[in-house]
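Figure 2 data, in text form.
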Amino acid sequence: MPASIQIIHDYAFQGCSLLNSFVIPPGSTSLGISAFNGCSQLISVEIPASVTFIGDTCFGNCVALAFVLFVDPSSVTSVGSQVFENNGPLTVTMYNTESFDDLTPAMQQLVSELPLGSVVIYESAPICFGKGTLLLSKGNQYIPVSELKVGMELRTWQHGLRKIVKIKRGRFQNDPHNPVCCFYKPKVPFRNELSSTLRLTGRHGLLVNRPGKDTLADKVEGQYVLMAYQSPWMEPETHRQWEEYWHFALDSTGLDSFTTNNPFGFGVCANGVWVETPHVSQLYSPMEKQWTQWAQRQREQREKRQQTKPKKIEMKPVWQTRPQTNKPTNQHDHRLQLRRRRTDALVCGTRDSL
């Protein structure tokens, strides 16, 4: 669907049975009345931060719908009635939100009308790097975070060079009053001039070698972790503009015991400052995890059905099912054998065999 679409009009996709997984274009602001009503094969929907209005019964009668993701629920200011009318239980994920109390009144109404048995997951923004961040890679070269690619190698604190196995990119509106959705920068360049362009979200951890009152109990590669919003060397960006973010995960093959005890992942060098980067398991959003789990369950059910499916009995002609023997098996076969012998004798011109 073109990104230029700003309004999805009333009844736009009503009754469309071809939709399976739908991502609303990032520029869309309005989802009309019954826009997706009756889409019987629709399983998952992702609603971007630009959406401000959701019409009545917008996703009603979508009997297969299981997963709904709101990138930024705070942007939704107007919601119609019975948005998910006549649906089964849903798993609704709210990004950039920590609890029900953080939702707008419109979104609180939507949550209160969810089908019985639905689950709501509140998840704040992941630890991210902002534009201008440079990562130390192979050959002691710094690479802009915007130019990272899967397969590139980055230098870690204790485990040498590690390949990038997953990269995610997104946007959120900077909020200086919410450290979860706010980029932090150095108050003054520290350690080196390169650090002046470092950008980290507030929940991103800096690696320090000494514990303090604000450091976390868990360590990353033997180093203590201090959140950027609690660091005396970092300050928030005060604007409210939309910012791009990147985050990535490194290959942990052969380090199972390390990653099991350390869910934070690795320490990487960003602009000359050692910071954490998440473990690959943390880089999958709840939507991706749920979709993967659902797909796995579907595969397992298919395999189970195939194993329990009765085997098809191959029907053979009667003459193939009888034992291959020269002796007659019954009186009927005996008569047939005698008849063949008489026929052979007549063809040969003798009756000696009779």
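Caption note: Residues 257-262 have pLDDT under 50 and may be disordered.
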